[in-house]
Amino acid sequence: MITMIIVTIAYLLILGFLGWIGYKQTKTAADYLVAGRNTHPYIMAMSYGATFISTSAIIGFGGAAGIFGLGLLWLTFLNIFVGIFIAFIFLGKRTRSMGHHLDAHTFPELLGKRYQSKFIQIFSGSIILTMVLYASVVLIGAARYLQETFQIGFDISLFIFALIIIIYVIAGGMKGVMYTDAFQGTIMFIGMLLLLFLTFSKVGGVKEGHEKLAELNEKAYAEAVVAFKDAYNASGAAVLLDDAKALELVPYFGKVLYQTKDKSDEDKKAISGKIFQDAETATGIKLGEYFGPAVKLMGEQYKKNLGNLAALSKFKDSGHQGWTKMPKGGSPFWWLLVSTIIMGVGIGVLAQPQLSVRFMTVKSKRELNRAVLIGGIFILVMTGVAFIVGALSNVYFYDVNPNTKGMISIIAAKGNGDLIIPTFLTSALPSWFNYIFMLTLLSAAMSTLSSQFHAMGTALSRDIFETLGFVKEVGGKKSIVITKVGIAVMLLITVIIGYFLPEGYIAAGTALFFGLCAATFLPAYVGGLYWKRATRTGAIASIITGFAVSLFWLLLVHVFTISKWGGKSIFGKSVWSMVDPLLVALPISAVVYIVVSLFSKPLDKQHVDGCVKS
Question: 2-203+332-505: which CATH architecture?
């Protein structure tokens, strides 16, 4: 523990030094907001990647891979192809040029000046303030790891981590943020490579580990069925089960286990009664008469199988086909994995304000070209390793670790997907590596959070207060002071939200925010870069429509979001309740943008030509 404390202090001192350098080099508002527009391509690429890859990717999405499996690697593909190649080549170059031409320092300011609309800048800045939801899930990821590593309370780890971040973000501005990002990104890259090699060594190598993972779903379910049969037959049941009958009856047993979890006694009775009736109709066996004794025996003699049976039954009913296969097409797991996690983040990355502003920090297009390779390799290692390790953690917990032998990852993590990676790290890897990986996760969280708070602070000061006329000296010292105050306020709100968010929400919360930004900003952003006929009215209509439809779908339709808070979708259990808001809101927003632009007054031709040709 003393060594870990020393390593942490040394790490924080380096961050403090880099923040101090950023502070000393910050002379103007442009320095504070866009790092003086002369950032080195390595620093820009690592800052972009480190901001993109947070504890959400490592803890949240790594944990999601422990549930969904290697299907998450499709997200790695989209992250590289869309988040790096398309973003840098097709959007980054024009964003940099237009940002310079319009003297824009923030993402909302870029949109506002492109469409000559203060409303767009203010409204976009206001939407960016909702980034507190994304920031809170990143903060949770880091706090969960500190909680497991240092064995301290979640609330204490949350507040300590928040305090560290605010000090160097407020002092160093964008220069300090990008210097620390590059340093943290380098640590993250090394840490994830080491994690991959150590994980394969724990599960028997690359080939053996993946072979075990491919067989694990059927193996774990079969062993749970045998445990159920033995417990049921020992419970005093009048009709003993053979293997065939046990296999026929066990799905109903599993449904009762997972569908009555955390329910009131009245709800448990109603739910289990319906399932018992269905079981008797289908099998002729009165499962309800011996359910209690069987559960008791399984709980006493086969604890791990009881947990596995509940989890695997839920997985199976939701479309899970194992950790090396995609879920069944059209199943709840398929919709959640493909439409929310893969598409939400894979497409949503294009319209992330805290990432897009990075394009305005370099001095020429050449720097962006040079940054593509660096960024692509970085994202490949960061996300690919997290997803592979998350899936393989099932093999480690089930076959290797004597304390969890017979458990799949979600059971070893006590039902919380956000704890799968932290639990794996603390139990599987040597103590010396925990020091390195602690720095990896601290870096992942800090690099993302610092950029988020910088984006929210600048949205509050430059995009809202200055645009509304509350600050007379645009870009002056008073503006920077308001930015710093805004950062502190948004951090406080983030901590409060993070404290009350439900468990296991990191991956979903990240994906939903990415999707919200894409539906709101992407049509106006891409159209502003490429389409001369785009109008102010079309952009306003698109931004409001995308935001409104996303919120409507999130709050009233999307079952995966609503269920976290105990609500129900207005579409019941239909397929529409499983469709991510992005897949509905983005097409509607794009159509509104095009149609309204075609039927509304064009912007000044000279202004538009200057923007697009720049």
Answer: Up-down Bundle (1.20)
